[in-house]
Amino acid sequence: MYIQALSGDAGFLERLARANFSGSVHSIFERTINLICSENGELYTIGNHQLDNAPNTLIIDVKGFSELGLSVNAPVMTEDSTLVIGADLRIWIQQATKWEGELPSYPCDIEGVDVLRRNVAFTKNYVDVYGKTGGMKMSSQPASPFEKEMSRMLIQRAGMLSDDLANKRIESATQHAISLIGLGPGLTPSGDDFLVGLCSVYKMQNIPSCLSCPFFDEIVRSSQALTNEISAITLKKAAHGQVRESLIDLLSCMVSGSTEELVPALDKIIGIGSSSGTDILLGILCGLERNLEAGGNVCLPKS
To answer: What's the superkingdom here (predicted)?
Structure first.
């Protein structure tokens, strides 16, 4: 079966074009399959046409993967501008659009900071009303005592991390960040999702409150042992400022968009997973609020 690739992460497409990818199928879901690369040990994702572009991801013209006859551990290789998965699936990449995600810059003038402040306030209210519970946002009627306790732990640890960041206690902030890794429900646990949102903010250019490389390095290192491989690669990419397209679009709206433009961007993120999108948004809000406090009215560009 031949399927056309619609778009893909530029680095992934370049690796495929060089016929420099081999490995095996790591995991199979309805809208994605994950491949593990034998050269660098990283996970790469093949997503259906409903998904947005993301690091290490290729979007292909297919509705779902459950009926394609793929199996875990099936071999993966490249030949003649084609990604070959198992015995029957061939993905043609030659006409795929290259995607290169770039986080927006934090605003550097009073007007821009005012727009951001307004959009942060709007987003907080929107998440309060429309955000999904079960992770970082506690339900008024938790499904079980376990869910209630899990949400309590997530909120408590995220709160301690936020307080550390506000008071420039970076060593303590690093430890509280690590305490969130792997915590919570879902394929990408809620604590991981919160950190993805937080990292995306602190990796914006011109950010007033910088975090040193060891903070991000510790998140990457600790994720290898504390969470699953799929979530770990997402955290690793976020710690290097590489996040999915819908998240970049949201942050772009946050720094320069109107509330009318912000609503569809928020809805797209909230729609991710059971509570993953909401957890990501809460991480973004934490990072932006700390930086609005740290930056005053204007943030000066880095020299």
So the answer is: Bacteria
